[in-house]
Input
Amino acid sequence: MDHGTPKPAHLTWTNIGVGLLFLLLDAFLSWYFALGLSTSLLVAAARCVVQLTVMGFVLQRVFETDSPWAVAGITCLLILLGTVEVVINKSKRRFTHMFPTVLVSMMSSAIPVSILGTRFAMGYTPWWQPAAYIPVVGMLCGNTISAIVVSTTSVLRDINSRFEACKPIATEALRLALTPTLNQMSVIGLISIPGMMTGAILGGSSVEQAARLQMVIMFLISAATALAAIMATTLACATVVDQEQRIREERISEGAATVWIVRDRISGAVLDALRWPFSRRQPSQSEA
Output
């Protein structure tokens, strides 16, 4: 009997529920020890289920069409959503024109690296084959998000000092942004078996081919994160420091993104309107 190549398992929502039990255990422990992470864990789990369900539905249609225009549309959507995630959800500090800056940084790094990597490093012809290109560009976008957030946050935090320190600030920001990727490359295959390699093995590929595929993916991720971090850091410094080498603090903002502030105001106004009929004092019998 051959047990070398496992067949892909057919997973149902019951299997998803079993996996969710482990996360519920973490949420319970967080509540028990008052860590304050229970809500974040549950919200993240809900987002994970919804987002992956929608992604699976959309990608299935894209794979069936096998069209380069559909692949281009998904790529643009991933980059746009990644930009929104960086600017609105991940960044605690923002600067003027941050959205187009992050958008250009992600497009200039993820798209060329994914195209060249899929075509020449991975050997796919044409390079836009949905099953090959979309997972690659998705992983690159995910890693560039982390690099851009770390680098821009570090720049905006430290640039409040004098401008002469701008270069070491940018250097330190890039070092921090690239450290996770470098650490991952240094221990990959020695301490941890990466997800792409595991997926390829479970999908029926040989261990040798899976290892080579993971090498290519790691090199592409490293290139994309470095390019994105360098561009985002450079553009951030160029935005907050004017041509006369003055730091423009009015271009840096802290706190929630504008969209969340507007949402809170609208929600507050709606709740006030709903409570208003019940807040009016009812006349007593003596007044009647």
In short: The chain has a mean pLDDT of 77.
